[in-house]
């Protein structure tokens, strides 16, 4: 596990322009139970509130290889948030599609006024890195009663958000292609529901593993197919191809 070191500082006007708000709640208790940003390069601002230590909230974002992953960690410049010791603030862990984990490191304490919400913030971390293909998971774990804002992306355009374990409604494409974000919605679904969802997307599926038993799969790659890993009747992992 590594700590993320800022590579490119994001402009301070990013949050002020058009970051779309997303509220995380107790039901988003892990990245796999959290919302999915269909395009991780589009700007979103996510608010996480915790009532006590050791609570967790999370979300996911889809990226294509070579795209820029932008991330910001902010707190409101007002008590009690700005009075908390850094050691008491929530920890953000980012897991890449290849399983590599990074912990967000506090590197600054820069004041920023957001005019649209008329809110004073403090930037505690900002960085950019080059993404690899797939779904990035963001886990936020509390150390005390606290609240933070994290933002992702930089494109100031409307972005779509998928809900976890709910089959997305899409416009049919030709040829059929299942995206990583669409496949990610299958996690948490029951087996029959997931298969039905894939069929509604005009895709196909294979069972890669079920209750610890792995199955032999052909090595051909198909953009309309999803491989499913199942445990006790629920989808726990997916892979397009």
Describe the structure.
By secondary structure, this protein is mostly beta strands. The chain folds into 2 domains: 2-162, Sandwich (Jelly Rolls), CATH 2.60.120.380; 180-240, 2-Layer Sandwich (Trypsin Inhibitor V, Chain A), CATH 3.30.10. The protein is 8% helix and 41% strand. The chain has 3 helices and 17 strands. The strands form 3 sheets. A 7-stranded mixed sheet has the order 1-8-7-11-5-3-13. Strands 2-4-12-6-10-9 form a 6-stranded mixed sheet, with no helix packed on it. A hairpin with a 2-residue loop joins β14 and β15. The longest helix has 10 residues, at 191-200. The chain is elongated and about 55 Å long. Residues 2-17 have low confidence and may be disordered.
Helicity range of the residues?
A: under 10%
Total helix count? 3
Measured distance between first and last alpha carbons: 28 Å
Q: Give the rounded overall mean pLDDT.
A: 92
Number of DSSP-assigned strands: 17
Query: How many domains, as an integer?
Result: 2
Low-confidence stretches: 2-17
Instruction: Indicate the radius of gyration in whole angstroms.
Output: 19 Å
Beta-strand percentage? 35-45%
User: What kind of sheet is the major sheet?
Assistant: 7 strands, mixed
CATH architecture label name of the largest domain: Sandwich
Helix/strand order:
EHEEEEEEEEEEEEHHEEEE
Categorize the overall geometry: elongated
CATH topology of the largest domain: Jelly Rolls
Major sheet strand order? 1-8-7-11-5-3-13
CATH class of the largest domain: Mainly Beta
Q: Could you state the oligomeric state of the chains shown?
A: single chain
């Amino acid at each position: 596990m590594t700590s993320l070191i800022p590579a490119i500082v994001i402009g301070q006007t990013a949050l002020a322009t058009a970051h779309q708000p997303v509220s995380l709640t107790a039901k988003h208790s892990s990245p796999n139970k959290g919302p999915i940003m269909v395009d991780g390069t589009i700007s979103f601002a996510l608010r996480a509130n915790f009532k006590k230590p050791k609570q967790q909230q999370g979300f996911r974002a889809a990226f294509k290889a070579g795209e820029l992953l932008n991330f910001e960690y902010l707190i409101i410049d007002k008590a009690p948030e700005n009075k908390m010791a850094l050691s008491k603030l929530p920890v953000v862990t980012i897991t890449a599609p290849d399983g590599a984990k990074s912990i967000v490191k506090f590197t600054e304490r820069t004041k920023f006024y957001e005019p649209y919400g008329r809110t004073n913030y403090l930037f505690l971390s900002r960085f950019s890195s080059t993404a690899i293909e797939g779904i990035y998971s963001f886990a936020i774990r509390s150390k005390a009663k606290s609240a933070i804002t994290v933002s992702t992306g930089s494109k100031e355009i409307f972005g779509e958000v998928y809900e976890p374990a709910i089959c997305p409604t899409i416009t049919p494409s030709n040829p059929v292609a299942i995206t990583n974000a669409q496949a990610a919605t299958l996690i948490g679904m029951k087996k029959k529901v997931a298969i039905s969802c894939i069929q509604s997307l005009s895709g196909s599926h294979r069972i890669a593993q079920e209750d610890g038993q792995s199955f032999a799969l052909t090595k051909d790659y198909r953009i309309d197919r999803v491989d499913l890993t199942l445990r006790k009747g629920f989808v726990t992992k997916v892979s397009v191809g």
